[in-house]
Write a structure and sequence with these properties.
The protein is built from 24 helices and 14 strands. By secondary structure, it is an alpha/beta fold. It folds into two domains: 327 residues, Response regulator (Rossmann fold, 3-Layer(aba) Sandwich), CATH 3.40.50.2300; 180 residues, IlvD/EDD C-terminal domain-like (Glucose Oxidase, domain 1, 3-Layer(bba) Sandwich), CATH 3.50.30. The longest helix is centred in the N-terminal third of the chain and has 29 residues. The two termini are 39 Å apart. 57% of the residues are buried. The model has no long low-confidence stretch (mean pLDDT 95). Keywords: 4Fe-4S, Carbohydrate metabolism, Gluconate utilization, Iron, Iron-sulfur, Lyase, Metal-binding. This is Phosphogluconate dehydratase. It catalyses: 6-phospho-D-gluconate = 2-dehydro-3-deoxy-6-phospho-D-gluconate + H2O.
């Protein structure tokens, strides 16, 4: 199938704008790859330190037999249900490496926080920047420079982007990502959301709410809604960085173990094959476009309008929200998974999953097929599902959709467009996810109510002050202000107001959770208020128009009056509070250094 002209045009303009940075990146990659093996190149004391903890047989393999050595970077902890299974992976990988005459070492661990634990708390203000900490920790792990390949063990929101950013700074290494899979389905996401809305109204108490949440989040594995964590997995499949079909296989079973072992074999295959496919070559502008297309086709997390900009930058590639918007105009929505539907990711997997979606996009000319992946068969391999036949892994085509209420072919999509819109106007530049919003809510015009914190909005809701058409403006939530926390806790009260028939929208320089989408939300507004952006000029009562159809976001005031209005400074009491307690002092430099959301909120450029 011929490549769609818009996909081709977006890819070309990314390639052209990125040419100098990409050339410099590849030059550094090639220089690193041209060096000798670490065990041959390093001093004897360095080598002795590196392998002092290994069994004697492994030392012999690496030093004398010159066997490949895999570096494992592990985000394991048992605070994250999705990462709990990763504790057992290193021994599996080491055993598989030994079976093939190689070795593996845990090069290092990286921090991994659970946004579900920190939502609505001060700890959430560390969340976005934890991505860059993870990237730096990955670099520290790989800086031992004794590895012929790497395996990245991680799943959740900031963890995968952080691992990927870190790995791309060691772009000369063949690298495979290794996930853990989703937990079994529990209380449905729709039922969980209903109980949250009842709790917001005071109709049920803490005991009932905790029981519902515990029935939804109840076992090892990834949360089952299609938020940032599961969007990560879809994007890694689309970029060819997994063993094909690995994303949503349940943890703990024989198939998951076989796929984990296959990840070690895959990494070793790249190091020993004539084919040179280090991660810095795999992740080129075509792979980035494939990831964006997969995100749009599945109604994935808006957080990736930040994270994948940062990922691309790490490979010398520059993308922006115009690229997302152009692709969204032509990429059809092929899946409905909560919050864009009622199904969870286990049902998505059963209906056809990643293999079905990638095949439909390839066949429609919406993805680049001529790309490098960690496998020898290219991206077409990622249209197949894994299964065990006896003890052997086999792959078969995903086939037709098993449930067209969950996944549909490209010729009969849920929507002709991907559901992300770029908004621009006198309130700045912003994005909105419309794939989960009722059609009659795509345009909201109402008086503004301005809040300096999400807590203030909750208080106004509880006091009954928002029982009307209203655009809630929540400012001082950008990277420089407080680290850009997710504002997922605002979804239940705003959804309650919307359910009562009021026209409601959120406008903020902060983020929403990857599980949000029911209420119209113009998010990531830039310039952010703390940098003197337009949200710092909005006053209570100003009429705001959010128009996702026309792609505009404006305060409806005469131009002269609006331009003459001074921006208010961030309240000092708020600035002081944002920087103190629960370790936030340690991130002050990151807040000062952070780029805009459209630049990936990077703190390392």
């Amino acid at each position: 199938m011929k490549l769609h002209p818009t996909v081709d045009a977006v890819t070309r303009r990314i390639r052209e704008r990125s040419a100098p940075a990409r050339a410099d990146y590849l030059q550094r990659l090639d220089a690193a790859a041209a060096r000798g093996r670490g065990a041959d190149r390093m001093g004897c004391a360095n080598v002795a330190h590196a392998f002092a903890g290994l069994p004697a047989s492994d030392k012999f393999k690496v030093v004398t037999e010159r066997a490949p050595n895999i570096g494992i970077v592990n985000a394991y902890n048992d605070m994250l249900s999705a990462h709990t299974p990763l504790g057992a992976y290193p021994e599996l990988i080491k055993a598989e490496a030994r079976r093939h005459g190689a070795t593996a070492q845990v090069a290092g661990g990286v921090p991994a926080m659970c946004d579900g634990v920190t939502q609505g708390t001060p700890g959430m203000e560390l969340s976005l920047f934890s991505r860059d900490v993870i990237a730096m920790a990955t670099a520290v792990a790989l800086s031992h420079d004794m590895f012929d390949a790497a395996l990245m063990l991680g799943v959740c929101d900031k963890i995968v982007p952080g691992l990927l950013i870190g790995a791309l700074h060691f772009g000369h290494l063949p690298t495979v990502f290794v996930p853990a899979g989703p937990m079994p389905s529990g209380l449905s996401n729709n039922e969980k959301a209903k109980v949250r809305e009842q709790a917001a109204q005071g109709l049920v108490g803490r005991e009932a709410l905790l029981a519902a949440e515990s029935a939804a989040y109840h076992a090892p594995g990834t949360c089952t809604f299609y938020g940032t964590a599961n969007s990560n997995q879809m994007l890694l499949e689309a970029m060819g960085l997994h063993v094909p079909g690995t994303a949503f296989v349940a943890p703990g079973g024989p198939l998951r173990e076989a796929l984990t072992r296959e990840a070690a074999r895959t990494a070793l295959g790249i190091t020993r094959a004539q084919r040179f496919a280090p991660i810095g070559r795999v992740v080129d502008e075509r792979a980035i476009v494939n990831a964006l297309v997969a995100l749009l086709a599945t109604g994935g997390s808006t957080n990736h309008l930040i994270h994948w900009v940062a990922v691309a930058r790490s490979a010398g590639i520059t993308i922006d929200w115009d690229d997302f918007a152009a692709l969204s105009d032509v990429v059809p929505l092929l899946s409905r998974v909560y919050p864009n539907g009622s199904a969870d990711v286990n049902q998505f997997q059963a209906a056809g999953g990643t293999g079905f979606v990638i095949r439909e996009l390839l066949d429609a000319g919406l993805m680049h097929e001529d790309v490098l992946t960690v496998r020898t068969g290219g991206l077409r391999e990622y249209t197949r599902e894994p299964a065990l036949e006896g003890e052997a892994l086999r792959w078969h085509d995903a086939g037709a959709s098993k449930d067209e209420s969950i996944v549909r072919p490209a010729g009969r999509p849920f929507s002709a467009t991907g559901g992300l819109r770029l908004l621009q106007g006198n309130l700045g530049r912003s994005v909105i996810k419309v794939s989960a919003i009722p059609d009659d809510r795509h345009v909201i015009e109402a008086p503004a109510r301005v809040f300096d914190s999400q807590e203030a909005l909750h208080q106004a809701f509880k006091a009954g002050e928002l029982e009307r058409d209203v655009v809630c403006v929540v400012r001082w939530q950008g990277p420089q202000a407080n680290g850009m926390p997710e504002l997922h806790k605002l979804t239940p009260p705003l959804a309650v107001l919307q359910g009562k028939g009021f026209k409601v929208a959120l406008v903020t320089d902060g983020r929403m959770s990857g599980a949000s989408g029911k209420v119209p939300a113009a998010i990531h507004v830039l310039p952010e208020a703390a940098a003197g952006g337009p949200l710092a000029r909005v006053c209570d009562g100003d009429v705001v128009r959010l128009d996702a159809v026309a792609g505009t976001l404006d305060v409806l005031l005469p131009t002269g009056e609006w331009e003459a209005r001074a921006a208010v400074p961030m309240p000092e009491v708020l600035r002081a509070a944002n920087g103190a307690g629960l370790g936030r002092e340690l991130f002050a430099g990151m807040r000062r250094q952070a780029l805009t959301a459209e630049e990936g909120a990077c703190t390392w450029l």
